[in-house]
Specification:
Helix content: 40-55%
Structural class: alpha+beta
CATH superfamily of one domain: Calcium-transporting ATPase, cytoplasmic domain N
CATH class of one domain: Alpha Beta
Largest sheet: 9 strands, mixed
CATH architecture of one domain: 3-Layer(aba) Sandwich
Number of helices: 38
Shape: elongated
Number of strands: 33
Oligomer: single chain
Strand content: 15-25%
Strand order of the largest sheet: 14-33-32-31-15-27-30-29-28
C-alpha cells in the first residue's frame, strides 16, 4: 500500500529551499581517489558481505573492556600501581627460605586486593555494555528480499540497506535521503546530539529519487553511490549517486547522520552509507580512556619514596649485620657462641660475611615491607565504592520531575571532584532547557512585558538589591501593576505578561495599528508548519526555537497562524477596528531565509487588499541601516529599549516592513528568477545581491526580546563555582550570537566586561573564499587569527598596566568561532591562544565541532596541569567528556550517549554545585586524610621493627609474632580508616555550600601536598621512636612477674604491639572531625578485638600460638606495669600531633579551621543584627577579592 504523503507544500519551489540544491563542486572531482574511495550498492547489501567492499557492521560499543582483553588489560591496570608490583615480587620470593614469614600471609592479601579491584572494574564496565546493547537492539524497518519492509535490530543493518525511519525516531546509521512523506522529498532533522542545536535542519532528497514512494517502487531500484571514506567531519559530505546511467552530486543536505532525529516528517526512506564506528558521530568519539586521579598518581611517587626508604634501611641493617657477623669469629674466639658460628648456613656464615649480608638484605626487604601498605589499595577501593553509593543516594541531587538521580559510573575519580580547576561546559541542554521564551517587546517606542530574566536577578544580587517582582524597564506606565491578568496555564515558549497587550487589550493602545502590524509580521514571517492534534489544539514545528516562540507569541496576542500551503498562509487575527476575530489569507510569493551571513529573514506576501508587503525580522546591527528616512519615527526609543534588553541577556530581533509597488516587484522578480536559474559559479552571490537590493527602505515597527531559558539555578551555581576558584569555559556548537546571550544570562559575561572576539568573518577572508584559492585562504586566515590573538594579549596587558597605575580593573571575556578555533588549535598557535584564554575571566567557543571540543579540553588539561571537568548532554560532547579528567553527563531528554560515556551523571546543571562543593570536597578530604593516615600507621608500625632489629644486632629477628604482623592491617587498624574515608566531615553540607572558599583546599591541593604527606610520615617515625624506646626503657631489666622475672621477648613484643594499636587508633580519634556511632564502634572495637585475639590465640596449643601462648592472660594482664606503660607511651606518642594541631589552629589555621571556629563562636554568642551581618559579608567579600 502506498503511504500517505503530504501534498500541497512544495517548499523546494521557494527560493530559500531551491537554492540549497546540490551542484557539482571542486571536491566532487576527488571521487574515486584516495580518501574518496567508498562504493555503496543501493538495495544490494549482499555485495558488501565479502571482499574489498566488506564494511563494518552497525554494532557500537563504548566500553573499556571486551571479553577477550578484560583479564590482560585489567591486570595491566592493576600493575600500573607500583606497590602491587613490589608485593608480586615479594610473594614470589616468599616461597624461598629467605622469607621471615610464610608465603601465604603475603600472597593472599595481594590476590584479594587485585581480585576485588578487577571485579569492581568489570561490574562498572558491564553496566556500560548493557546500555550499548540496549542501543544496538533498537528496531528499524528494512527493505527485504520479499519486497516489503520488516523490523530488524540496528546492529543487523548493512551498508546498502534501504531503511524507513518514522517521525521522532533516531537514524540508526548515516543515511542518504531518498524520499520522504513530502512530495518534494524534504524532511526536518533535529541534530541536538551532534552539534547541540535544537533548531530543525532541513534535508532534502535528489529529485530523481523523490518519486520512490512505496514498497513496489523499491523493487527494481538499483543505484551506485561513490563517496568519501569514513571521517569525523560533521559539516561536510562529498559523493555522487549513479542512477539510470547518470551522475548526481550529493552533499551534506542529502545526508542523515546517526544520532540525529526525524522531526515534523511522517517518514523518510534512506540508504545506509556508513555503519557503526564508521559513522561520523562515532568518528568524533575516542576510545574510553583509563583515567586515574591525581592523588592515585601521586601515591605512586610516595610508594617510590617509601621503597627508597625501605632499601636504605634494609641496606643499613645488612651492613651492620655483615660487620657483626664478621666479628663473631675474630681473634679465633666465638663472640656470639649461642648463634653456633661453627655450624653455619649460607644465611649466617662469619667466613662469608658479605654473602650473608646480601641474603640479609633480601630478607630485610620483605621484613620491612610493612612500610608499604598493601591494604591501602583495597581500603581505598572499598571507600570509593561506598562514597559512590552516597552520591547515588543523595536526595538533594535527585530530579523529581524526570525521576533521575545522580549517578557515579566509576568510583576511581571521587576525590578528583574536589580538585577541579576548570570546567568546560556544553551550552544547549546543559546550561539551558532547550527552549526560548517570548518575554518582552518594544512596539512604536513603548516597552511591553514585565518578566524578570535570570540576568536581571543576577545583577540585582551583585548590587545587593532585592530582586524586583516586575521589571521597571519594561513598562512606561507609572504606577502600573505588574501582575498579569492572564491566568491561563503556562505556555511553552511564551512568558509574556502585560495587561495592556493581553486579552485583546492592545486595541486600546495609542498605536494599535502598529501593534497589529508588529504581531502580523511575527505570524507570517517564518517557515514554521502548524500541526493540529486530536483535541484540535495547534502546535508549531519550526526551524529554530526563536521562530516557534514568535509564532506562539502572535497566537497568544490574537494572530493565530492556522494553515500553510505552498502559496498561502492563513491567519485568524483580531481586527483593531471592529475588535472581532477575522480569517485572513496572505498569498506567499517569496521566502528569503535567515542565514548567519545575512542576519535577517524576509517574506513577500500579498494581502486580501491586494497590497504587496515585504515583512522582515533581523538583527539590530543590520536592520537600522536599512530603514527609510520616514521609517525611523521610534528609532531612539527602540534603541534605548534594545540596550536595556541586552543588559537583561535577551535575544533581540528588530521587526520592520514596507509596501512594494507592482512594477518594482515585477522588475525585481524577473532578475531574481534569472539569478536562481543561473548555472554559473557565482549564482549564490547574485541571489544574495538581489535579496540585499530589495530589503531596504523599511518602516520600523519595534523589537522582540526572547529569553533563551536557562535551567533552574544555573546563574547561582556558576556564581558559587566561581567563588570556589573554578574557571568555566563554554564550548558550544551554537552560533556566536546565541552563545553570547547565554553567556550574559548565566553571568559568564557581564556588562562591565570587555569582549575580545576572534572571528574570520571579515570582508578580506570572504573575498578570498569567493576566489576559491585554498592556500591563500589558509594563509590569510592564519595571519588574521595570529594578529587577533596578539592584539588581545596586548590589550589585556595595557589594561593591567593601567590598573597598576590606580585605575579600576577591567575583566575580559574571550569569544571565538569554530573556524578561528580550528586555526588556533594548530601547533604553532595553540600556546599563544591558551595564553590569551587563561588570562580572560570567561571563554566561549562557538560553532565548535565535537573534535574541537575534545582538542580544547586536551589543551587546557595539558597546559594547566590541573584537574579539568567536562559536562555535556549530547553525543557531540562524548569526546570532550572522555578527554577531560572528569566527564559529567547530563541525563536530559535527548539521548543517553553523553551519560554512557561519562564518569558521573546528573539531571540538572545546578546539581554540579553540590557534586563538587559538597561531595567533591568531602571525598578529596577523606581520601587525602585516609592515605596520609595509612602511611603514618604503617611507618609507625614498620619502624618499630627496624628499631628492634637494631636492638637485636640486626639479626633479622621480628619483634612480633607472625600473626600479629598479618592481622595488623586486616583487623586492628583497617576498619577505622575505612570509616574515616566514608563518614568524616570537616564541616556540614550546608556550610560547604555557604562558604565556597573551602573548596580552595582541593584546588590548591593543601591536604595532599608534599609538606603535609612528609609531615604525617615524620609523625609516624616520631611515634615509632617514642613507642619503642619508651617501652624498652620502661620495661627492660624491671621485675615484671610476681616471682621477680624480668620482661622476656614475648612480653616486650606484646606490650609494644599494644602501644602501637592504641596509638594509631587514638590518633584516628584525634583526626576525625565528625563522630558517628560507627566510628566509635570501629575505633574502640579494633582495640578491643586486639585483646580478644590475644586471649583466643594465646589459648591455642604452643605449636600453633608459639610466642603468644597465654602471654596475655598469664603475664601481661595481671601486671600493673603493662597497663601503666601502655597508658604512658600512648599519651606521649600523641602529644606531638596534638601540639602541632593546637599551634596550627591558633597561628596558621586552614580554611576549614576558620569555618569551624566561626561556627563555634556563632553557636556560643547571639547572632548580630542583620544590618551588621550584611556589612561583615561585604567586608569579607572585599578581603577575599584582595587575596585573590
Amino acid at each position: 500500500m502506498p503511504e500517505g504523503r503530504r501534498r500541497g507544500i512544495h517548499f523546494s519551489k521557494l527560493y530559500s529551499f531551491a537554492c540549497c540544491r546540490p551542484k557539482f563542486e571542486e571536491n566532487h572531482a576527488q571521487i574515486g581517489k584516495r580518501g574518496y574511495s567508498r562504493v555503496v550498492y543501493c538495495n544490494e547489501p549482499e555485495k558488501h558481505e565479502a571482499g574489498p567492499l566488506k564494511y563494518r557492521g552497525n554494532n557500537v560499543f563504548t566500553t573499556k573492556y571486551t571479553v577477550y582483553n578484560f583479564v590482560p588489560k585489567a591486570l595491566f591496570e592493576q600493575f600500573r600501581r607500583v606497590a602491587n608490583i613490589y608485593f608480586l615480587v615479594v610473594s614470589c620470593v616468599s616461597f624461598s627460605p629467605l622469607a621471615p614469614y610464610t608465603a601465604v600471609s603475603v600472597l593472599a592479601p595481594l590476590l584479594l586486593v587485585i581480585g576485588a579491584t578487577m571485579a569492581k572494574e568489570g561490574v562498572e564496565d558491564w553496566r556500560r555494555r548493557k546500555q550499548d546493547i540496549d542501543a544496538n537492539k533498537r528496531k528499524v524497518k528494512v527493505y527485504g528480499s520479499n519486497c516489503t519492509f520488516h523490523e530488524t535490530k540496528w546492529e543487523k543493518l548493512r551498508v546498502g540497506d534501504i531503511v524507513k525511519v518514522c517521525k521522532d525516531e533516531y537514524f540508526p546509521a548515516d543515511l542518504i535521503l531518498l524520499s520522504s512523506s513530502y512530495e518534494d522529498g524534504i524532511c526536518y532533522v533535529e541534530t541536538m546530539n551532534l552539534d547541540g542545536e535544537t533548531n530543525l535542519k532541513l534535508k532534502h532528497s535528489l529529485e530523481v529519487t523523490s518519486h520512490l514512494r512505496d514498497e513496489k517502487s523499491f523493487q527494481h531500484f538499483r543505484a551506485l553511490i561513490k563517496c568519501e571514506d569514513p571521517n569525523e567531519k560533521l559539516f561536510s559530505f562529498v559523493g555522487t549517486l549513479c542512477y539510470v546511467e547518470k551522475e548526481y552530486p550529493l552533499s551534506l543536505k542529502n545526508m542523515l547522520l546517526r544520532g540525529s532525529k526525524l522531526k515534523n516528517t511522517e517518514y523518510i526512506y534512506g540508504v545506509v552509507v556508513f555503519t557503526g564506528h564508521d559513522t561520523k558521530v562515532m568518528k568524533n568519539t575516542t576510545d574510553p580512556p583509563s583515567k586515574r586521579s591525581k592523588i592515585e598518581k601521586k601515591m605512586d611517587k610516595i610508594i617510590y619514596l617509601l621503597f627508597s626508604a625501605l632499601i636504605v634501611i634494609a641496606f643499613v641493617g645488612s651492613v651492620f649485620f655483615g660487620i657483626e657477623t664478621k666479628k663473631d669469629t675474630s681473634g679465633g674466639r666465638y663472640r656470639r657462641w649461642y648463634l653456633r658460628p661453627d655450624n653455619t648456613t649460607v644465611f649466617y656464615d662469619p667466613k662469608r660475611a658479605l654473602l650473608s649480608a646480601f641474603f640479609h638484605f633480601l630478607t630485610a626487604l620483605m621484613l620491612y615491607g610493612y612500610l608499604i601498605p598493601i591494604s591501602l589499595y583495597v581500603s581505598i577501593e572499598i571507600v570509593k565504592v561506598l562514597q559512590s553509593i552516597f552520591i547515588n543516594q543523595d536526595q538533594d541531587m535527585y530530579y523529581e520531575e524526570a525521576d533521575k538521580p545522580a549517578r557515579a559510573h566509576t568510583s576511581n575519580l571521587n576525590e578528583e571532584l574536589g580538585q577541579v580547576d576548570t570546567i568546560l561546559s556544553d551550552k544547549t541542554g546543559t546550561l539551558t532547557c532547550n527552549s526560548m521564551e517570548f518575554v518582552k517587546c518594544s512596539i512604536a517606542g513603548t516597552a511591553y512585558g514585565q518578566g524578570i530574566t535570570e540576568v536581571e536577578r543576577a545583577l540585582a544580587r551583585r548590587r545587593g538589591d532585592a530582586p524586583p517582582e516586575a521589571s521597571d524597564v519594561s513598562s512606561d506606565v507609572q504606577g502600573h501593576d505588574g501582575d498579569a491578568v492572564d491566568s491561563r496555564k503556562s505556555i511553552r515558549g511564551f512568558n509574556f505578561r502585560d495587561e495592556r497587550i493581553m486579552n485583546g487589550q492592545w486595541v486600546n493602545e495609542p498605536h494599535s495599528n502598529i501593534i497589529q502590524k508588529f504581531f502580523r509580521v511575527l505570524a507570517i514571517c517564518h517557515t514554521a508548519i502548524p500541526e493540529v492534534n486530536k483535541e484540535g489544539e495547534i502546535s508549531y514545528e519550526a526551524e529554530s526555537p526563536d521562530e516557534a516562540a514568535f509564532v506562539i507569541a502572535a497566537r497568544e496576542v490574537g494572530f493565530k497562524f492556522c494553515q500553510r500551503t505552498q502559496t498561502s498562509i492563513l491567519l485568524w487575527e483580531l481586527d483593531y477596528k471592529t475588535r472581532e476575530k477575522v480569517e485572513r489569507t496572505y498569498k506567499l510569493l517569496q521566502v528569503l531565509e535567515f542565514r548567519s551571513s545575512r542576519k535577517r529573514m524576509s517574506v513577500i506576501v500579498r494581502n486580501e487588499e491586494n497590497q504587496l508587503l515585504l515583512l522582515c525580522k533581523g538583527a539590530d546591527s543590520v536592520m537600522f541601516g536599512r530603514l527609510s528616512k520616514d521609517g525611523r519615527l521610534f528609532e531612539s526609543q527602540t534603541k534605548e529599549h534594545i540596550t536595556k534588553y541586552a543588559e537583561a541577556g535577551l535575544r533581540i530581533m528588530v521587526i520592520a516592513y514596507r509596501e512594494m509597488g507592482e512594477e518594482e516587484y515585477k522588475s525585481w522578480e524577473e532578475e531574481f528568477q534569472k539569478a536562481k536559474t543561473s548555472v554559473s559559479a557565482d549564482r549564490d552571490i547574485l541571489v544574495d545581491a538581489l535579496a540585499d537590493k530589495i530589503e531596504r527602505d523599511f518602516i520600523l515597527l519595534g523589537t522582540t526580546a526572547i529569553e533563551d531559558k536557562l535551567q533552574k539555578g544555573v546563574p547561582e551555581c556558576i556564581e558559587k563555582l566561581a567563588q570556589a576558584g573554578i574557571k568555566i569555559w563554554v564550548l558550544t556548537g551554537d552560533k556566536m550570537e546565541t552563545a553570547v546571550n547565554i553567556g550574559y544570562a548565566c553571568s559568564l559575561l557581564r556588562q562591565d566586561m570587555k569582549q575580545i572576539v576572534i572571528t574570520l568573518d571579515s570582508p578580506d577572508i570572504d573575498a578570498l573564499e569567493k576566489q576559491g584559492d585554498k592556500d591563500a585562504i589558509a594563509q590569510a586566515s592564519f595571519e588574521s587569527i595570529e594578529k587577533q590573538i596578539r592584539d588581545g594579549i596586548s590589550l589585556i596587558n595595557t589594561e593591567k598596566d593601567s590598573t597598576n597605575s590606580g585605575e579600576e580593573s577591567v575583566e575580559f571575556g574571550l569569544i571565538i568561532d569554530g573556524k578561528s578555533l580550528d586555526h588556533s588549535l594548530k601547533a604553532n598557535l595553540e600556546k599563544s591562544f591558551f595564553k590569551l584564554a587563561i588570562i580572560c575571566s570567561s571563554v566561549i567557543c562557538c560553532r565548535a565541532s565535537p573534535k574541537q571540543k575534545a582538542l580544547v579540553t586536551r589543551l587546557v588539561k595539558s597546559e594547566t596541569g590541573k584537574t579539568t571537568l567536562a559536562i555535556g548532554d549530547g553525543a557531540n560532547d562524548v569526546g570532550m567528556l572522555q578527554e577531560a579528567d572528569i566527564g559529567v553527563g547530563i541525563s536530559g531528554v535527548e539521548g543517553m550517549q553523553a551519560v554512557m560515556a561519562s564518569d558521573f551523571s546528573i539531571a540538572q546543571f545546578r546539581f554540579l554545585e553540590r557534586l563538587l562543593l559538597v561531595h567533591g570536597h568531602w571525598c578529596y578530604r577523606r581520601i587525602s586524610m585516609m592515605i596520609c593516615y595509612f602511611f603514618y600507621k604503617n611507618i609507625a608500625f614498620g619502624f618499630t621493627l627496624f628499631w628492634f632489629e637494631a636492638y637485636a644486632s640486626f639479626s633479622g629477628q621480628t619483634a612480633y609474632n607472625d600473626w600479629y604482623l598479618s592481622f595488623y592491617n586486616v583487623f586492628f587498624t583497617s576498619l577505622p580508616v575505612i570509616a574515616l574515608g566514608v563518614f568524616d566531615q570537616d564541616v556540614s553540607a550546608r556550610l560547604c555550600l555557604k562558604y565556597p572558599i573551602l573548596y580552595f583546599e582541593g584546588v590548591q591541593n593543601l591536604l595532599f601536598s608534599w609538606p603535609r604527606i612528609l609531615g604525617w610520615m615524620f609523625n609516624g617515625v616520631i611515634s615509632s621512636v617514642i613507642i619503642f624506646f619508651f617501652t624498652t626503657k620502661s620495661m627492660i631489666n624491671q621485675a615484671f612477674r610476681r616471682d621477680g622475672q624480668v620482661v622476656d621477648f614475648e612480653v616486650l613484643g606484646v606490650t609494644m604491639y599494644t602501644c602501637v594499636v592504641w596509638a594509631v587508633n587514638c590518633q584516628m580519634a584525634l583526626s576525625i572531625n565528625y563522630f558517628t556511632w560507627i566510628q566509635h564502634l570501629f575505633i574502640w572495637g579494633s582495640i578491643a578485638f586486639w585483646y580478644i585475639f590475644l586471649v583466643i590465640y594465646g589459648s591455642l596449643p604452643p605449636n600453633l600460638s608459639t610466642t603468644a601462648y597465654r602471654v596475655f592472660t598469664e603475664a601481661c594482664a595481671p601486671s600493673s606495669l603493662y597497663w601503666l606503660v601502655t597508658l604512658f607511651v600512648v599519651i606521649c606518642s600523641l602529644l606531638p600531633f596534638f601540639s602541632y594541631r593546637a599551634f596550627q589552629m591558633r597561628f596558621k589555621p586552614m580554611y576549614h579551621d576558620l569555618i569551624q571556629i566561626k561556627q563555634l563562636e556563632y553557636q556560643n554568642s547571639p547572632p548580630l543584627p542583620r544590618k551588621f551581618q550584611q556589612k561583615l559579608h561585604h567586608l569579607g567579600e572585599r578581603l577575599r577579592q584582595r587575596e585573590l
